[in-house]
Amino acid sequence: MRYFFLAFALIIVMVISFFGFRGQYFSGTPLRIFPDMDDQDYVKTQRPNAFFADGMGSRKPVAGTVPRGFEPGGVDYAFGAGPSFGNSDRYIDTGRIGDAYGAGMPKELGLTDETTAGFLRHGRERYNVSCMPCHGEAGNGKGTVAVIGIPTVANLMNFSETSYPDGKMFETITVGKGLMGGYGYNIPVNDRWAIIAYVRALQAARASSAAK
Questions:
Q1: What is the pLDDT of residues 148-206, one digit of tens each?
Q2: Number of domains in the chain
Q3: I want to staple 165 with a disulfide (CB 3.0 to 4.6 A). Which of 26, 101, 170, 205 is the partner?
Q4: 30, part of any domain
Q5: d(Cα 111, Cα 124) in Å, to the nearest integer?
Q6: CA-CA distance, 132 to 171, in Å (whole number)?
């Protein structure tokens, strides 16, 4: 047993002498067993790169992809609140018609009887991703966040089209309100409107159920 402790102490001394104490400064390059992604391979801007067959480091976007913040055609209103508050006066971007909040879906969405069902399905999908954890599956404010002890989550069933127009709901999603942060940089414009349409569908379903 004595030799075990001697060997153990020797190993500790060797490790400390090799790696040093935690937080100690070194002049040389440190040996990192777990680099934690501190160093990553990347292509430097406007530099040649032998990895690609043509030797060019600057690459064209992959076919079919869209840069974050842009719609096909380069319209800069997909994400964020910038164009919605100063660079655009369109209802689809601001939720407003003049100085008042608008109601209904923007014409730019091009919704028809054939596309409305798919639009609502997409709204449900986006709602479940971004809204359900707080507002609950039924939109009644009883999501996971409320269950764990934050009782101030809004009950969306109380936000009727009369008291809370679609445009006002769009603005709230974009910039946030109260404890809710804005989702303008997380949810594209069209998806925000799809979520609003789905919330209205939830409200209509609840009203129909209550009337029976």
A1: 877 688 899 999 888 999 999 999 999 898 888 899 888 888 899 999 999 999 999 98
A2: 1
A3: 101
A4: no
A5: 16
A6: 18
